[in-house]
């Protein structure tokens, strides 16, 4: 395989992947709509991510919701890495049609073409997400392995943010492996689950290899600093640089697995180029849980700027409490172990942010929007 189509290839992960594959001698075609929410206004003039791949890839401006754009992009390609998607967990809860149309219907169009029309695609790599798990995996001394349901509004309104499970007693958080229960708590998570299952099912039926990556919270140089719907690292960084107070939701002890962009690209390339991972799913993370307060403290330390933060008790409907990845399968089958620690990654991220212009990211507007719909309380 030498000719690779990357949908969403002008985005954060896609552009980094494209540049790494080019260095390895691959010919890259990108299909991307250059969404203003991700790239800002006038993206062809101002988007650093788009400019980073300009004249290095064959670029097609188009959308995965168009069968014609798909057919043009797929011509003469050997493999597809399908990143194009709407990605805001909170936003997905009230823009349901847009998220399902782009994420599910867009993927269905790809598979319909692969099933019914001539092509030379040998492999499809699909970007799944840790969001398909919903809450993470826990161990109860009395019940063993349990998967708590989504938290209810009454508990969170009373400041009780930790998950519970009937009859389980005290719960111990453990790493979520690929065989863990899938019970997404957001529209975004549901769409990623369906994407993954569609690709693995249909590709398996038609003899095309497929690999699904369940990415944890990906961060690093190049991520959008203007999109208020994805990424506390960007939101907090903008607030710190502007010397504005940070609003920390819940009690600040909710945790995520933050994985650096270089490690995500390395895992994706391994899945693309090695046959060992064909027709399988892989977690991509670090296996380390980091709390939101730890994120805020690490950012302020690296910026050298102290700002007040308020642990407000606010919460979003659809947010999970904890999740971090078991990466044993990624290590054993694809031979990939993440190399960048959170401390090193944050330092590299902050160094990059300090070179960027301070921009308006509509964060306050996004909060008001969610509050007006009863999704932020």
Characterise the protein shown here.
With 377 residues, the protein is an alpha/beta fold. Helices cover 39% and strands 17% of the residues. The chain has helices spanning 12-23, 36-39, 43-46, 48-53, 67-74, 89-92, 96-116, 153-157, 187-206, 232-241, 261-273, 292-303, 328-334, 342-353, 363-372, and strands at residues 3-7, 27-32, 58-61, 79-82, 123-129, 137-140, 144-146, 171-174, 209-215, 217-219, 246-248, 255-256, 258-260, 280-284, 290-291, 309-311. The strands form five sheets. It has a seven-stranded parallel β-sheet, with helices on both faces. A three-stranded antiparallel β-sheet has the order 7-6-8, with no helix packed on it. It has a two-stranded parallel ribbon with strand order 10-13. β6 (137-140) and β7 form a beta hairpin. α1 (12-23) packs across α11 (261-273), α7 packs parallel to α9 (187-206) and α12 packs across α14 (342-353). The longest helix is centred in the first third of the chain and has 21 residues, at 96-116. The N and C termini lie far apart (49 Å).
Keywords:
Rossmann fold, single chain, 16 strands, three-stranded antiparallel beta sheet, 377 residues, 15 helices, alpha/beta, seven-stranded parallel beta sheet, globular
User: What is the CATH topology assignment?
Assistant: Rossmann fold
- How many domains? The number is 1
Strand order of the largest sheet: 3-2-1-4-5-9-14
Cα distance spanning the termini: 49 Å
- CATH architecture verdict: 3-Layer(aba) Sandwich
What helical percentage do the residues reach? 25-40%
Strand content: 15-25%
Secondary structure tally: strands: 16
The average pLDDT score comes to: 95
Structural class: alpha/beta
Tell me the name of the CATH homologous superfamily. NAD(P)-binding Rossmann-like Domain
Low-confidence stretches: none
Shape: globular
Largest sheet: 7 strands, parallel
| Helix run count | 15
Question: What is the gyration radius calculated from CA atoms?
Answer: 20 Å
């Amino acid at each position: 395989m030498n000719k690779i189509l990357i949908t969403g290839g002008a985005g954060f992960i896609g552009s980094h992947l494209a540049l790494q594959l080019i260095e390895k001698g691959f010919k890259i075609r990108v299909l991307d709509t250059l969404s203003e929410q991700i790239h800002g206004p006038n993206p062809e003039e101002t988007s650093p991510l788009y400019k980073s791949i300009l004249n290095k890839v064959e670029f097609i401006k188009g959308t995965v919701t168009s069968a014609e754009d798909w057919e043009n992009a797929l011509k003469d390609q050997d493999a597809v890495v399908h990143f194009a998607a709407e990605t805001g967990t909170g936003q997905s809860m009230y823009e349901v049609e847009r998220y399902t149309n782009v994420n599910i219907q867009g993927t269905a169009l790809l598979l319909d073409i692969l099933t019914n029309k001539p092509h030379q695609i040998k492999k499809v790599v699909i970007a799944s997400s840790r969001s398909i798990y919903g809450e993470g995996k826990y161990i109860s001394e009395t019940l063993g392995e349990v998967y708590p349901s989504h938290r209810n509004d009454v508990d969170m309104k009373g400041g009780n943010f930790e998950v519970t499970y009937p009859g389980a007693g005290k719960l111990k958080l453990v790493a979520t492996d690929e065989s863990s229960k899938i019970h997404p708590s957001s529209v975004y998570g549901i769409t990623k689950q369906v994407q993954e299952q569609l690709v693995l099912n249909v590709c398996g039926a038609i003899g095309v290899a497929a690999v699904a990556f369940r990415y944890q919270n990906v961060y690093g140089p190049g991520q959008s600093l203007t999109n208020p719907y994805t990424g506390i690292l960007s939101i907090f960084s903008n607030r710190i640089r502007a010397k504005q107070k940070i609003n920390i939701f819940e009690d600040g002890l909710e945790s995520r697995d933050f994985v650096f962009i270089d490690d995500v690209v390395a895992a994706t390339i391994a899945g693309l180029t090695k046959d060992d991972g064909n027709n399988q799913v892989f977690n991509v993370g670090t296996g380390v849980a980091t709390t939101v307060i730890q994120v805020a403290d690490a950012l302020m330390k690296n910026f050298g700027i102290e700002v007040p933060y308020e642990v407000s008790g606010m919460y979003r409907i659809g947010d999970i409490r904890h999740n971090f990845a078991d990466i044993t399968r990624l290590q054993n089958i694809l031979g990939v172990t993440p190399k960048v620690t959170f401390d090193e990654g944050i330092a590299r991220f902050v160094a990059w942010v300090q070179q960027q212009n301070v921009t308006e990211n509509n964060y306050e507007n996004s909060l008001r929007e969610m509050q007006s719909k009863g999704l932020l309380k």
